[in-house]
Write a structure and sequence with these properties.
By secondary structure, the chain is mainly α. Helices cover 84% and strands 0% of the residues. Helix 1 packs antiparallel against helix 2, helix 2 runs antiparallel to helix 3 and helix 2 packs parallel to helix 4. The relative contact order is 0.12.
């Protein structure tokens, strides 16, 4: 069983480590600009770092859910590659956002596209799972009558 989910587990762990890295960057920015919690306003670089980390954290549960559903029901390898690309795009997003707000846009679009791809893979995998041969035969029956299938 482990070899059926090892890639998904690896990408999940990398994602958790990435989230920890983002959180640490907020801590460093707080120290650098002397902004104590719970304050979220201050130096523009701190605000961008804080916002970038918050945005990445908001999407992380969606990413992890899609990663596992697509990986289990579609294909672990394809899903893991998509997951690695997503994590890379979020890293680029974070780095771009901390420098300038406009720097986040390209990686933001890439990560959104990858999330939609994971939605598609998860949906395709679930449909294939639920439309087992019995269901497929019932759906294809009209085509078989006409000799198309």
């Amino acid at each position: 069983m482990r070899d059926q989910i090892d890639l998904l587990a690896t990408v999940t762990l990398l994602g958790v480590l990435e989230q920890a890295y983002f959180a640490m960057q907020v801590i460093y920015a707080r120290r650098k600009y002397k902004i104590s919690p719970p304050e979220t306003k201050g130096h523009p670089e701190f605000e961008r770092t804080f916002r970038a980390q918050a945005n990445c954290s908001e999407y992380f549960p969606i990413f992890i859910s899609l990663l596992w559903v697509a990986g289990i029901f579609f294909h672990q390898g394809v899903t893991a590659v998509c997951g690695l690309l997503y994590l890379y795009s979020r890293l680029r997003y974070f780095q771009g956002y901390t420098v300038a707000a406009q720097g986040r846009l390209g990686p933001l679009y890439a990560s959104a596209w990858l999330l939609w791809l994971l939605v598609g893979l998860a949906l395709a995998g679930l449909l294939a799972h639920f439309l087992q041969p019995t269901w497929m035969a019932a759906l294809l029956w009209p085509l078989q009558l006409h000799g198309v299938w």
